[in-house]
């Protein structure tokens, strides 16, 4: 029986990334979306701004750091998500859109052996064609692909792609993962 290989492609901070596509001067600045913050850039996260924080409580720190506050633009976010999903569909016919910013890709039957390289190709094409950064976790199940994705986002040396290849790697990452994080 062929071993499954599944990738979870997750857009990084989709709403704030969409705003940056159309306003590149926001790159490297803290960006949040909505009156009660529902999306944050990585820079806003570093400032300690939590999801659910009322904007008025974060406004002064954001402005002092050259940040920006946006109202939700669901038409834009949905359109950009559709563009990302269209790019992903070019890599495999077996794709499951999981949410506005996540999709599972079945990679097992593609005849590819270098999954980290494929992950980098996917990242580069999505970024080039849409401007949206993504992280990719690759594993033998959807759950393990999600765990790998979580570490791909948070571990700079992964360069946005993590592949779980062995039982030892799986055991190590699961030991470092809280059940509630899955």
Instruction: Please state how the strands of the largest beta sheet are arranged side by side.
Output: 5-6-1-7-8
SS strand fraction: 15-25%
Q: What is the chain-wise order of helices and strands?
A: EHEEHHEHEEHEHEH
What is the arithmetic mean of pLDDT? 90
CATH class category of the largest domain: Alpha Beta
Low-confidence stretches: none
**What's the CATH H-level superfamily name of the largest domain?**
Reverse transcriptase/Diguanylate cyclase domain
Which architecture of the largest domain per CATH? 2-Layer Sandwich
Describe, in plain words, how this protein is organized in 3D.
By secondary structure, this protein is an alpha/beta fold. The chain has two domains: 6-12 and 82-181, Reverse transcriptase/Diguanylate cyclase domain (Alpha-Beta Plaits, 2-Layer Sandwich), CATH 3.30.70.270; 15-70, MutS, DNA mismatch repair protein, domain I (3-Layer(aba) Sandwich), CATH 3.40.1170. It has helices spanning 14-22, 42-46, 55-64, 74-88, 115-130, 142-154, 167-175; strands at residues 6-11, 31-33, 39-40, 68-70, 95-99, 102-106, 134-139, 161-163. The strands form two sheets. A five-stranded mixed β-sheet has the order 5-6-1-7-8. A three-stranded mixed β-sheet has the order 3-2-4, with helices on both faces. Strand 5 and strand 6 (102-106) form a beta hairpin. Helix 4 crosses helix 5. The longest helix has 16 residues, at 115-130. It starts with 5 loop residues before the first strand and ends in a 7-residue tail after the last helix. The model has no long low-confidence stretch (mean pLDDT 90).
């Amino acid at each position: 029986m062929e071993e499954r290989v599944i990738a979870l492609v997750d857009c990084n901070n989709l709403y704030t990334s969409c705003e940056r596509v159309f306003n590149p001067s926001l790159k490297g600045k803290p960006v949040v979306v909505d009156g009660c913050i529902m999306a944050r850039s990585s820079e806003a996260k570093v400032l300690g701004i939590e999801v659910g924080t009322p904007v008025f409580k974060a406004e002064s720190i954001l402005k002092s750091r050259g940040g920006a506050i946006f109202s939700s633009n669901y038409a834009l976010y949905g359109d950009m998500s559709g563009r990302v999903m269209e790019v992903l569909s070019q890599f495999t016919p077996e794709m499951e859109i999981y949410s506005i910013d996540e999709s599972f890709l079945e990679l097992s039957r593609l005849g590819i052996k270098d999954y980290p390289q494929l992950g980098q190709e996917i990242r580069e094409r999505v970024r080039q064609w849409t401007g949206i950064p993504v992280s990719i976790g690759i594993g033998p199940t959807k759950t393990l692909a999600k765990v790998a994705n979580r570490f791909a986002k948070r571990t700079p040396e992964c360069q946005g792609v993590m592949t779980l290849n062995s039982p030892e790697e799986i055991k190590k990452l699961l030991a470092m993962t809280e059940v509630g994080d899955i």
